[in-house]
Amino acid sequence: MNSKSYTYTSPGDIRSVAVIGTGSVGASWAALFLAHGLDVVAHDPGPDAEPRARRFIADAWPALVALGQAGTPQPPLARLRFVATAAEAARAADAVQENIPEKPELKARVLAEIDAAATPEKIILSSTGGITPSAMQASCANPERLVVLHPFNPSHLIPLVEVVGGKHTKPEVIEWAMAFARRLGKQPIRLNAEAKGHMTNRLQFALVREAVACLIEGIASAQDIDAAVRYGLGPRWTLMGSLLTLHLAGGNGGMQGILAHAGKAIEEWWTPMTQPQLTPQVQERLAMAAAEVSSGQPVEDWVHWRDEALVGLLDLQRSVERLAPHGSPNKEQETQDYGASAGR
């Protein structure tokens, strides 16, 4: 490990980002970076990667404008350029956002190329949804500047990002990633320990597992399983998380009240009764369920509907947060003088 200390450019002073991999996640990041006035230097070896990314950004732009993230009616695509290699992109930009597929060997090879090309004071952010940062750091000569910044689909709209450091990540790099995420209008959460899939996927797929179990057990139709989330759980979860929801379920007694009243039942409810396996039969049943819940309409139509609807939902979420008992979350933390301490 390189033990030398470096001064990292303040998140507020970043002017360009290398986006390595421009699939749906990378193109989402590119759109958000452009919306916040950053130049994007992109690399993706896939066929037609550049025109696909440009179309994605153009399609994403109206939602970014509606949310107040973008200040121009049209995307500034002149500030996006593609280059021939990941190394060239890493050399040209102030920071790097890596978004390549979740294939450990491929990720290791590309991260080694990025790490060798980017000068040590440049932060490397990874969008990986499941690989631990320590595993990725094994490919880097300067592992202390690599940190996970894991977004959620669609990445340009959903506020949450998970910030996860590896065993070699410097504390100031984690702070840098938190501040950079806030600069982009994101809501970062810091994970204190590494885990496969990080944390939010762990929460998400616990519910997916139970939805699949209910489906194959014949408890309800696919439509009604999704309706249970949309109309029962989802509205509350837009306002508050699982732990606050449980606390309020206890009435004036709060968490202690609900655990005293229904603790044994809760323990039974959260114990998986079925551990579904993705056998060919289950995969076929899920394909049928997908056709049912989507009414057989094209995925593209649902994506457009989702992104348009998210604008109103996110606006509502922000407005009601200001009325919460604890007051509005402080989203101006990124204005502090990070550069005064980073890397020193």
UniProtKB/TrEMBL annotation:
Gene3D superfamilies: N-(1-d-carboxylethyl)-l-norvaline Dehydrogenase, domain 2, NAD(P)-binding Rossmann-like Domain
Region (Disordered) residue spans: 322-344
Keyword Oxidoreductase: yes
GO biological process, one term: fatty acid metabolic process
GO molecular function, one term: oxidoreductase activity, acting on the CH-OH group of donors, NAD or NADP as acceptor
InterPro entries, sorted: 3-OHacyl-CoA_DH_NAD-bd (IPR006176), 3HC_DH_C (IPR006108), 6-PGluconate_DH-like_C_sf (IPR008927), 6PGD_dom2 (IPR013328), D-isomer_DH_CS1 (IPR029752), NAD(P)-bd_dom_sf (IPR036291)
Name of the featured protein: 3-hydroxyacyl-CoA dehydrogenase
